[in-house]
Design goal:
This protein has 116 residues and is of the alpha+beta class. It has helices at residues 5-16, 19-30, 35-42, 46-58, 79-108; strands at residues 33-34, 62-67, 70-75. Strands 1-3-2 form a 3-stranded antiparallel β-sheet. It is elongated, with a radius of gyration of 19 Å. It holds the Pfam family HTH_5.
Length: 116
């Protein structure tokens, strides 16, 4: 018996639940990258980046293509770039709503200064 779809979705989102993995996917949404190209953009040790790339490869979210002694990584599916764009839109809406709420709270108590 196969796992229910909701369980597979949960595993998928759990795989995305690491900032380095999200940053890698963002970079690969722009173009293919090698590890050496990603390192300065991601800001972690090479070993840590390799571990996170391994997680993404095992989940079939990225693919590696050997070019001589280097490996170039790419998104396994272009829809991942779309997912990241949708996540950005959702977060923008949430943050805009929070900014409006903060403005409303500050307007309700004009004599108080906000904490630092």
């Amino acid at each position: 018996m196969s796992a229910p779809l909701y369980q597979l979705k949960a595993e998928f989102f759990k795989t995305l639940g690491h900032p380095v993995r999200i940053r890698v996917l963002e970079l690969l949404s722009q173009r293919d990258h090698t590890v050496s190209e990603m390192l300065p953009e991601v800001g972690v040790e090479a070993a840590h980046l390799s571990q996170q790339l391994a997680v993404l490869r095992r989940a079939n979210l990225v693919v590696g293509r050997r070019e001589g002694s280097t490996v170039s990584y790419a998104l396994a599916s272009p829809e991942l770039a779309d997912l990241l764009k949708v996540a950005r839109l959702i977060l923008s809406g949430v943050l805009a709503g929070q900014a409006e709420l903060l403005a409303d709270l500050q307007a309700a108590q004009p004599d108080r200064t906000p904490p630092p």
